[in-house]
Amino acid sequence: MPGKPMGYHMPHLSCSVLLPKNKRRGDAMEEKRPRTADAGEASGSDGGGLVNRLPEALLVEVLSLLEVDDACSAAASCRALHAAADAAISAITTVDLSEFAPSNAILSRILAGNGSVRSLTVNCSRLDDSAAAAIAKHSLRELSLLKCSFSKSFFVAIGEKCPNLRSIKLEMAISPDDLNSRYDGFGCTFLAPIFAGCSHLETLWIKFPLLDPRTGESLLTFIPSTIKELLLQPVSQSWARALFPTTISLTTQFTESLESISLVLDTITDEIVVWITKNIRNLVELCLEDEPVSQAYLNDDLTNVGIQALSLCNNLRHLSLTRRYSDFRRVNDFGILTLSEGCKQLRTIRLGGFSKVSDAGYAALLHSGKDLKKFEVSNGFCLSDLACLDLDKAAPNVQEVRLLSCALLTSDTAISLASCTNLKILDLSGCKSIADSGLISISQLSMLTLLDLAGADITDAGLSALGNGKCPISSLCLRGCRRITSNGIASLLCGTGTINKTLVSLDIGNVPKISGRAVIVIAKNCEQISSLSLRNCLFITDSSLEMLGSMGRDTGKCSLRMLDVAYCSRLSRNFLRHFEPPLFRGLRWLGVGKNVVERRGCRPSIAELLEKKPGLTICANACEMGCRNKFHPDIRVHQ
Questions:
Q1: What are phi and psi of 360, to 5 degrees?
Q2: Can you give the residue ranges of every domain in the chain?
Q3: Cross-referenced InterPro entries, in alphabetical order (predicted)?
Q4: Which superfamily, per CATH, for 96-176+187-223?
């Protein structure tokens, strides 16, 4: 499974950049420049300002309730608020810098004096080994390092200074050749200092390029016996055989404590599944995903034998088996029925690429127990509306349903799901026969926060029903819904329902009839929106961008953090001028087409814009929002 295993939720803190004191009022902080009148009143030029007379403890308490970017804005007002903001920020226990790549200096400023941070997530694209001085803190319990390419000395510092670390998650951004040449074996020399120094380590995630199979044995040697959750991706079949040999028992090493294992393999086989079920006695969560280059050989693939072995795992609560770009041809309803009989306490089921499994198999899983909360099927070629009948009775506690690219599903499935009153997440992307009747039923779900209808056959009438419905949706994807227009977006956001107050993420990319009018409606009626995708909307113009960039001018705060305008062909040659200060305050990520980066003579140029907005990332690489789906060596301009 790419990304995070099931059940994991990355802690989030909307964290702006804390700049050195001598730049607090410079260009870098133009996005949070306070109004002059307010500043004068706060500072109290006569020495008797109200803020200066308030107790510092009270100011710290108030600022600790704000997001970090708001605290930074207040800090620029006067010395009292500056000191209080420093104290409040230094007491933060969870810091998430995944959406912004700080430099060494900025990271040091953010974490300076903070001896309380317990959970830290950092995009390391612009960091080097010296960042260990800021990151390595005795208080740390959880550390996530994204897109990193540190040397051994960095991890030696982590092992020495973070003895209480419980969780470390590494996302490497270094090629296999560089990795092996620089470190002479990933597992042996790279992770050993952490394993030696962090004696309480329970969670280990390593996302890395494919390595030489010989390194499997060295990594196996160092995995501590305290590990309960292990994620490795990607892993070749030969590497997995070295890590998990089938000829000997490893229960004396780390499998006794292991409860969760997540692997992204080149091929999932019965051999690997049988080994896992025999040796990991306390298995609670199993996530296996593969991406075979070609169709797997019939004698070296997952079959009903491997599925039946899983039915012996009585403690299994979360199961994910997915295949991308191909399918499991030797697993059918018989294997799934056996699984449903043996594992009746599953809370999460995620299946992808099971082309021979029909409604009977899926229905058996749905009716196998009352504890099911998350159910996902992708590329279920034989899954139809019949499997979801009476789902509210079969799985009364279900909160998340994802049925991706299941061609046989129609609006009847959406109507059936509308009876699941606890449903919070519904993803029907790629189900092209979902129409307005299904959306009208969905609009009455009072707890729904995420809805993905990418590619559905809905119209403006369905959006009108959603706009007048009860769903408190915060994330909505309408990508590729070709029948909706700007009028539908107006009906969605100008209705009597709640969505215009709760929506923070909207994707209307690849919708041919979306024009600048839709963007203006969003700017006027949805000021809290933080993520907006307009990719390949051919009628978006400069004037609508200017309106969007002016959001929050009256309040001094713009919530928009990520914007995708890649391949919007009607934008002018110099459309980047609309992103200069003071427009688009707070924007952290901007997606543009590759042709924009390659243009000559544009004003402003990419370099000029980035100089004025040092916290901005510009991507011309067709990434998904925030570049979460790709590694990049340079965080500032991806091309």
A1: -60, -45
A2: 55-91, 96-176+187-223, 515-631
A3: F-box-like_dom_sf, FBXL15_LRR, Leu-rich_rpt_Cys-con_subtyp, LRR_dom_sf
A4: Ribonuclease Inhibitor (3.80.10.10)
Count the alpha carbons within 13 Å of 558 in the hemisphere toward its beta carbon: 26
Q: Residue 40 has what pLDDT?
A: 44
Would you call 563 exposed, middle or buried from its count of C-beta atoms within 10 A (0-12, 13-18, 19+)? Answer: buried
What are the pLDDT digits (tens) for 9-20?
333 333 333 333
Partnered with residue 326 across adjacent β-strands are none
Q: Pick the closest to residue 374 from 343, 411, 349, 394 (CA basis).
A: 349
Is the distance from CB of 197 to CB of 163 less than 8 angstroms? yes
Average pLDDT of the chain is: 82
Phi and psi for 606 in degrees, rounded to 5?
A: -55, -45
Plot region of 578 (φ>0 → left; ψ -120 to 50 → alpha; else → beta): alpha
Q: For residues 146-169, give the mean pLDDT.
A: 91
Distances (CA, A) of 319 to 369, 376, 393, 402, 424: 14, 10, 22, 14, 20
pLDDT at residue number 17: 34
Cβ neighbours around 598 below 10 Å, total: 10
The whole-model pTM stands at 0.83
Buried b / exposed e over 33-53, threshold 16 CB at 10 Å, is bbeeeeeeebbeeeeebebbe
Helix axes 486-493, 516-525, angle to 10 degrees: 10
Distance CA 560, CA 529 (A): 6
Q: What angle do CA 527, 531, 533 make, to 5 degrees?
A: 115
Rounded CA gap, 358 and 266, in Å? 25
Relative to beta strand 142-148, strand 285-290 is unpaired
Closest to 121 in 3D by CA, of 105, 107, 109: 107
Nearest to 18 by CA among 68, 64, 57: 68
What integer is the mean pLDDT of 19-41? 39
Tens of pLDDT along 572-622?
Answer: 888 999 999 889 988 989 998 776 766 666 778 888 888 888 878 888 877
Q: Which of 368, 366, 346 is nearest to 413 (CA)?
A: 366
Residue pLDDT, tens place only, 306-345: 999 999 898 999 999 999 888 999 999 999 999 999 999 9
